[in-house]
Design brief:
Layout lengths: L2 H5 L10 E6 L12 H4 L3 H8 L2 E6 L9 H8 L11 H8 L8 E13 L4 E5 L7 H14 L2 E2 L2 E7 L4 E7 L34 H18 L7 E8 L7 H5 L3 E5 L2 H9 L3 E4 L4 H11 L5 E6 L1 H7 L3 H19 L5 E5 L16 E6 L13 H4 L5 E4 L3 H8 L9
Parallel strand pairs: 1-11, 1-12, 2-14, 9-10, 9-11
Antiparallel strand pairs: 2-13, 3-4, 3-7, 3-8, 5-6, 6-7, 12-13
Helix pairs in contact: 5-9, 10-12, 11-12
Amino acid sequence: MNDQELLRPLIASNTTKLVLVVLDGVGGMPINGVSELEGAKAPNLTALAASSACGLQVPVACGITPGSGPGHLGIFGYDPLRWEIGRGVLEALGLGIHLTENDIAVRCNYATAVRDDTKIIIKDRRAGRIPTDRSRQITGMLQEQIRQIDDAQVLLLPGMEHRFALVLRFSARLDQGADAIEDTDPQKEGLEPVVPAPSGSAARHVADIALKFVEKAALLLKGQERANYILLRGFSSVPAIPRFNEVYGLKSLAIATYPMYLGLTKLIGMDTLKVAGGIAEEVQALKESYGRYDFFYVHVKKTDSNGEDGNFQGKCRVIEEFDACLPGILSLAPDVLVITGDHSTPALIKGHSWHPVPVLLKSKYVFGKTSAAFTERECLKGELGTLHSTDIMSLMLANGMRLKKFGA
């Protein structure tokens, strides 16, 4: 029995408010002796940690580095080993497209490449995080020029900065495994892009079309100083997955600025609210929506972006920006407030890592006074200990008095 099957018969109705804040990639590693959470000046987080239950959570399994999809699914109570969802689906859903069983969705990066007579080398996997307006212009041009490849309709949707989504729409349902195709992103600058290789015969036709798309796009982008190449990531199709509201008995709202996170929450049945701006605008959206929902998920992206860029001070500044906005969340007096991340993204590593993620739970039913700050080392001392990410939802429901007793 998984956690959701255990919880379903125990769900109790209540009017309590639950807020989950995900500081994407918030966990870090020491540089000059301190992590990003330790280096940031965050007095509000520090005070909140002292009165909260703190601990560390493992997103997937010990030693496993999670992507953002598995990291978030775990926090929402979905076993990421059972519910593996490709990032292409999440990106496309977040950008507002309705996917069908005939679709393969891909999350794409504009990249900068250099060419010689024999090979292509990826110089910048994110094309310097080109402005979103520029990305939209390029995507529009590509869509005009590439509408069909063989028997697949090509749909392109611009995202944020260097990201966009590709949907290959076929006239009939594809065989299982048709999305089992290797990413073309080499994951490191200075390497050649990977060929979109199929993992089995069911994916061969889709992989051939994906390669043709990359080649056509490269010809159209040739001559651009930046964003002159495309990397394909997260080939995926739509799975059947339990609905969040039905599993937990909650009317839920997701507040985010980036499409992928809106896509994931839309997939599991949350209402979604795309916010233009930053953390302050997200907190304002939370305040304006507070009377209409039971459960709120607020996503903060730039902690992760700065970690991936190796920008230690930049990540500290985002933590400090959130800290300055935290009183706005606390002014709503939620019955349960959880602050955590979907994974760690240490600036030291410049990417996601396997390290456990700090987690803070504030309610009137915790001991508190076991952690002096919201940092990795202080959370290690906390009353929650080290738990699996899938335990977070059951703890939120319990502290919100939304679970009945189990057994006689």
